[in-house]
Design goal:
The chain is an alpha+beta fold. The chain contains three helices and four strands; from the N terminus they run H-E-H-E-H-E-E.
C-alpha cells in the first residue's frame, strides 16, 4: 500500500498524525493475534493511528512493525524510535481525504 501513496500524501498524513497519541502498545508477549485484531479494528475506525512498539533492540522493532504492516495491509507512514504511524483507508467509514498528488 505504501507504493500507492505519493510523497505529498505521506507528508499530509504525517502532518495529520502529529498531534495524535499512541492508541495501542505492544506488550511483553510481543505480537499476539489479539493485538493484531485490535490494531485492524483501530485502523478501520480511525484510518490513521500511532502505535508504540516495546522492544529494546531496533532490529526486533523493525521486524515487528514490518510484520504488523504486512498482516494488516496498512501503510507505514513514519517510524520514530518506538512509535510508528500506520494508515489504512477504511472500507466503510472514510474519514481522511488524501490530496491528489
Amino acid at each position: 500500500m505504501t507504493s500507492s501513496l505519493t510523497n505529498a500524501q505521506i507528508r499530509f498524513l504525517r502532518g495529520q498524525a502529529h498531534d495524535l497519541r499512541p492508541i495501542l502498545q505492544t506488550g511483553g508477549k510481543g505480537l499476539t493475534d489479539a493485538f493484531v485484531t485490535e490494531l485492524s479494528a483501530a485502523l478501520e475506525q480511525h484510518e490513521l493511528i500511532k502505535i508504540k512498539v516495546v522492544a529494546d533492540d531496533r532490529e526486533i522493532r523493525n521486524q515487528m512493525i514490518a510484520q504488523l504492516v504486512e498482516t494488516t495491509g496498512a501503510a507505514l507512514i513514519q517510524r520514530i524510535g518506538h512509535t510508528a504511524i500506520l494508515y489504512r483507508q477504511s472500507a466503510e467509514r472514510r474519514h481522511i481525504v488524501l490530496p491528489r498528488s
